[in-house]
Amino acid sequence: MDNSEDLISALQTIQVLFNTLQIRYFIGGSVASSYHGAMRSTMDVDIVADIELKHIPTILETVANEYYASDIAMRNAVQRRSAFNLIHLPTSFKVDIFVSRGRRFDESAFSRATCCQLGTTENCVHVPIASVEDILLAKLDWYRAGGEVSERQWAMFRGL
Predict the structure, then answer these.
(1) Least buried of 43, 57, 100, 129, by fewest C-beta within 10 Å?
(2) Counting beta carbons within 10 angstroms of the beta carbon of residue 65, is it exposed (0 to 12), middle (13 to 18) or buried (19 or more)?
(3) Highest mean pLDDT pick, 41-55, 68-82, 131-145, 146-160
(4) 88 lies in a domain?
(5) What is the DSSP letter of 103?
(6) CATH code for the domain of 101
(7) What CA–CA distance (Å, rounded) separates 92 from 133?
(8) CB-based contact 124:117 (threshold 8 Å)
(9) CA–CA separation, 16 vs 126, rounded Å?
(10) Domains contained in the chain, number
């Protein structure tokens, strides 16, 4: 990842916020794939999180000055168990937050995620990262949901 400083900057507040609110979460997607060796440049980070409606006011208050956030999008995502995003204003880095669907797979993925350091010793965050196996299963799920036609998804799957 060639934009790791932006990633770290975008994650710092989220990491502290989720830990303070005791929201279970883990990093997935391209950032997790890159951490495990399938390098890919990205301008977003995917987070799976166990967010509930009760968390939304505190999240909005905490991120108000640093991120673009939509109260309506958050509420809809939590109610529908879908996704919303936050845009880190200083870097334009996008944080895609996928609300846990409560599936057995999600519960297993939470238990297998391991705390890892992203960034350098001087500028880093320690966050839970999805296991390689869970990244592969999630990529395969997306590949199948997309009709098994995405060469990019298949290439990433093979790269892991």
Answers:
(1) 57
(2) exposed
(3) 68-82
(4) yes
(5) -
(6) 3.30.460
(7) 30
(8) yes
(9) 10
(10) 1
